Amino acid sequence: MSACMISASTFLQETGAAGVWVTAAGIVFSAVLIGALILYRRRYRAALQERRNTAELIENLHDGIYRSSLDGHQLAANRALVRLNGYENEAEMLASVNDIATEWYVDPDRRAEFRDILNRDGRVEDFVSEVYRHKTRERIWITESARIVCDPKIGKPLYYEGSVREITETIKRRQLEEQIQKLTSQLPGGLFQFRRNPNGSYSVQYLSHGFGRVIGLPEERSILTTAQFVDLIVREDRPAYFRSLTSSRRSLSPWDHEFRVRTPGGESRWLRIVAKPEQDEGAITWHGYLMDISARKKQAMEIEELAYFDPLTRLPNRRMLRDRTAAAIACARKRGRVGALLFIDLDNFKNLNDSQGHHVGDQYLMQVAERLRECTGEYGIVSRMGGDEFVIMLEDLADELPEGSRHALAVADRALSALRDTFVLGPVHHRGSASIGVVTFDGSESGAEELVRRADIAMYEAKSGGRNGISLFDPASLELESQRFRLLNDLRAAISGDQLALHFQPQVDREGHVCGAEALLRWRHPELGNIPPGIFIPLAEHCGLIHEIGDFVLARAIAALARWQRNPATSHIRLAVNISVQSFANATFVPDLTRLVQEYGVDASCLTLEFAENVMARDQERTAARMAELKKLGIRFSLDDFGTGYSSLIHLKKLPFDELKIDGGFVADIETRESDRALVRTILAMATTLGLTAVAEHVEDDKQRIFLHLFGCEIFQGLLYSAAMPEEEFLAFTSARNVPAEAETAYIRRPA
Ligand code: C2E
Ligand code: MG
Ligand code: MG
Predict the structure, then answer these.
(1) How far apart are CA 396 and CA 375, in angstroms?
(2) By CB count within 10 A, which of 56, 408, 583, 617 is most buried?
């Protein structure tokens, strides 16, 4: 620069002033020109560089960029778009693409839609279409935005330019989500994923729609945090919930837990959560399913209620009592304390139930349950064994058995007097009573069943010692009970063997002729000899064996009657058969008997069915209906042991009886006791009024016969004539006794 200034001053000196100025101006001009040129060149270079940069930027953009002619021909495309279309370079692509509308869009109409928007608005944004990857024809999804580029001077559209981005993955994911959504919406429960982060916090990853439904979230509140979820869990259930979750986390074992929630709407629900944990770099994700199990839980609770509680009285049932007694025995053993069982049986419950209806019977049982609960207090549990049997279990009564027995008897006494108070059962006022068996335990007992059995035996003792009593279990009665048990087994064998036989006790008319017989069952035990029916019939009735016995008796009796009817000398003889009410209550009784009558072709008017007075206590309508049906066959009915039970004249009138048998007890004292005499006379008068035939039982001597004869009795039965005897003997007795009138003087009375 300094060299240049020196040479310029030298030049000025040499050329003079004007020349100097011209020269200087030329220099300045040149310098400015050069400067301008340099500047222009720099700017040009910078612009070129910028254009190159832009082109490079466009070329390297992730999104596809294009320019196309207005008629749909691709003019330029960046690398991303070239790749999107499956080509290697722009030239190859531009050479291959002819018409975008038909070659690119899966639905060619999309192109028209696209162009319409573009023409209308001058631009299109986020236009999603399914297109072909041009080269491979693979279907993909894209979103494109574009604008029309116009001539800046005249505004005429020149071409389109725009960007394209492939969103196949997003669309597929969305489609998948939609599918999952559709599928999960069909599930009754909810799917979820939640994570325990390495820092111990929890976060929800995924919840299906059903999840919200299960926990009763309103539709609009679909998002839920883990904390919000825990808030819904019933407070008492939270510790167990967290324990089970922690256990699953620690052992990475499947999580399966049931708990209760209270929904935002206030409803209580039982839920079950089932999930599989998966560990992932310090975090654990549970993938699982949440379901509403309220219905199942309710059912399970109902089943448990049914399994352990009596539905009528809501008292614990036999099963629960057994469990609780077993626990009480174990506890008594451990603590050295004494407890007791009180077995309570209501007297005459069946009478009430049958005469007043089941509704009244149920009310009575419920009130009994309440009274027993009251007198037991918190010291024991009251349970219902079924029917009219209740058991009270008392624990922790005393240290020693005698004192425990005293306490238990005191409770039994309280219970008994509570049950004696009048029960108001709607319009019915009922005075009941009960029999109670008491047994104490100190833990040395073999088990609950045995203890209940002992209490039952004691109750049986109380009952047989007259109703309305209490009996303390006596080990000696175990022997009696086991005898009964042995006898029952033997009776089973006797029915199938030939140890049972039907004997016949004659019934005699006022003239002394045999007009009928009562069939009486005999059991010849191979070791014990003859066992009276008074022993084995009640046992059979108690244990359900009476049906088989009844069938046996009826079949033998009708067979005998058929034989007698074939002989003119005995064809008129009536046969009375004793029928237990249990047999008669059996639905097959009427059809079975009808079949027998038809099979043997007997004249059924010679068949009399004898019922004890307890037949009155049964469902009278059904009894009357069955009797009416049998009456159509001609069968007669007799009321046995009249005067001993609960027969009332009203009931007697309601049922179609033909005959009544005055109980032997009245006959026995007819000579000696005025009251019995009066009673027998009244019964006989009443029988006449009601049009019933009267039969006197247990006629043992002539004086009795004379009294009865005098009072109008028509038929006589008893040892005065004969005990019950085998059929052959009975027939011989009959033919000897029923001699024609002219031979009657030759008759010799058989000794009783
Ligand atoms: P029941 O029907 O009142 O029968 C009359 C009972 O009195 C019979 O007793 C009979 O042997 C007895 N007896 C007859 N004459 C006299 C007498 O002069 N004095 C006394 N003291 N007793 C007399 P048995 O045979 O022991 O029967 C007892 C009860 O057993 C019967 O009483 C009846 O209720 C029942 N029984 C007998 N056989 C059957 C049967 O086949 N089926 C059913 N269900 N019960 C039967
Ligand atoms: Mg009888
Ligand atoms: Mg009798």
Answers:
(1) 16
(2) 408
